[in-house]
Amino acid sequence: MDFATLAGLVLGFGAIFVAAYFGGTDPAVIFGRWEAIFLVVGGTFGATIVSFPWRTFSTGFILGLRTAFSDVDFHEREIVSTLVSFAEKARREGLLALENEATALDDDFLRQGLQLVIDGRDTEIIRKVMETEVSYVQERGTKAEMVFTALGGYSPTLGIIGTVLGLIGMLKGLSALGNTTNVAGTIGVATAEAFVATFFGIMLANLLWLPLASRIKERFGQLLLVREIMIEGVLAIQAGDNPRLLEEKLLAFIDPRDREPEVEEGGAVPEAGLSASSA
């Protein structure tokens, strides 16, 4: 669980609740309008489902939630260290010496790339296979982002529809009031209740759906960066590049603040956390 995402959602919705309470609006009045919540949430999901094939929507929604709320550390610096160590061993003992290391890797993508190198595949074939896999990952991330972006786009519109329906009901009910003295008060209450739907539509779009879409985009951007590092490393190992030059080449992909390896007590560099495939 990524507690930063969870904390952000709690802070955002909490700010709305506190603002409503101290602003003189009873939160129970707003959050108790279940018909408005049902209209906005149900209508938003309905419109989004219509926008995509069912498999695209269901897969993208589930993948998006898992990606946004999962706490994944891609360990870019450790991956670079691992690839450099593989390059050193390949230069000393040959590519076949990497077979045991490749088998022990947790990351399917890197393991597949190294196995292709060990099997003596052509450089262009290796690049094509690995880049095809990257394109597939990118497509999955794009679809997940699109689903949540669509949810964020439809939500305010459904809120406006709910408000219009509330205003229609209010105007229709005016004739029943006649010339009673509480007409102004009744109109005020009915108008306020009508705008609850708009409130929910805008709130869910800007505090839930669109932030999650941005989070998904960022997560898959990190994953694609790791994949690019792996591709360059695998091809450099096949070409027999100097390990020191390979390290400098791969470090160029990483933020300068993250280029120093994390050293454990005793001076040992931790093993690379090659778990990026979980995304």
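Second entry:
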Amino acid sequence: MADFFKKLKKRLRLTVQLVFTALSNGYVQGFAEGKIFRGKTKSVCVPGLNCYSCPGALGSCPIGSLQATLSDRNYKFAFYVLGFLMIVGAFFGRFVCGWLCPFGLVQDLLYKIPFFRKLRKLPGDKFLKWFKYVILAVFVILLPLFAVDAFGQGSPWFCEYICPSGTLGAGIPLVVLNEGLRSVIGWLYAWKVAILAVLIFLSILVYRPFCRYLCPLGAIYGLFNPISLYRYKIDSEKCTKCGACQKACKLDIKTFENPNSTECIRCGDCIKSCPHNAIKK
């Protein structure tokens, strides 16, 4: 029993990720019948990226909910969703990305697949990491607000044209499980599957490319990292700036200089690797 708990502690983050993914996507009947859950909990947001249309989803994705509100001609300000994002961000920051996001778990598992050469980051990383903020501003906020039809109704642009989590969790399962949908899929479905395929390959090659470069939810939570209640501190008396934390960090963050970087997903690898126990939560 003691060995079991030791192994559980060693793999605590993976265990939490698996449990939370199972709980937030626990509508097994949806996968069996190819139907979307429509119970009362669907009006409640979950912290991570989790497509509303996934057959197993018991809650709503905050990014999808934000777009749905902004694109609705009757509601132009998402009080509930923005409040939810601010509260979660203020408490946890990007801890959500590292521990509670189902698509983050998918990327973590893909990165474990052996490859002849792993990359610390993609070429142009310095500029690519700002692209998620462009996606947040353009596809999540501006286009749903202002690119409207004749009736003043917008569209969920990020969900419709980019989100790989929606393709993996909703698009592919629904098409596989519903014969009627297979006859009407077109270029948009092919485009979304192509994005997913590229990200799957990149996730084997480099750690969490979607989180680094594309995720608007991570962009929001990252802004809270420096001020969230859950944040890291460096004990300047113990830290020797040896660089062990940066070497252990799969996102290549200089934790000893910027422990609350907007890119940090709070995986805890830097804390485990520090030989001087200088990094504290």
